[in-house]
Amino acid sequence: MPSAFQQSVIDEFRANAGKVGGPFAGSDLLLLTTTGARTGQPHTTPLGHVRDGDRLLVVGSNLGAPHHPDWYHNLLAHPTVQVELGEEEFPTVAVPAEGPRRDELFARVVAEAPGYAEYQAATDRTLPVVVLELPDPQTPALEVTSLADKLTEVHTWLRGQLAQVHAETEAHFAARAAHRGAGAPPPPGLGLQIRQRCLAFCQALEFHHTSEDGHMFPAMEGYHPHLRHVFDRLREEHRTIAAVQSALAELLAGVAIAEPDRFRGELSRMTEQLTAHLDYEEAEILPLLAGVPWPPRP
Q: Which ranges carry the Hemerythrin-like domain (predicted)?
């Protein structure tokens, strides 16, 4: 639960399209909603931010306290967050910057908000800089009017996230090979960016398949009993994919992915199996959902 003061800031932010008075008058604020690492419940926190091109930068300063703020621990456990910025609200994947890139972005923040340098000087810990990507204005939003559209939207997001993780992983291995070729030690493990994106993907995939197994498939079977073999196959594929997902989740449990080669192998398995599964599901199920309105009518 936010403190009474934080709640008053949240309420004022939402009532005035992001404008807040008092000590925050004129400040660039956003509301960050994370999922509790232990509770699984949503937690909203007002945070200052610095805009850097197509991304927002937030710093886990905790006013220079010796420990990271709770919202930072939450986003390490659940990387998908909700951002409120003025009248705009959108989901994104929160990615802490690392190494030289973190230092570069922190300098960018301090140039605009010098107080963060004072917070850094007050503590021995390195203040994390978290990157929140803004929605791409060039990407047109899919018009969702049916359950078929909604399923396509979810599948498109899953495919896109998986492709991005795969591309970033292959780029990492190319960098490792280049280091070896130059006689230099390869970079250790895999970075937080790959971890955060893959964890967000895995959590979304688990939620999606659980929802299908528990709600959508049973309802559809009632209307289409002759397609029971299709739903049986889809459920079996869910179980097969869940085994790969569990292997990935085990590798993502720590902040650093310590077994890059094993991760790469499991990711390739996921790509192969999920791509085939989504293709089959769309071929068999989308035509049945084209006439079902979304959002559901009361």
A: 148-289
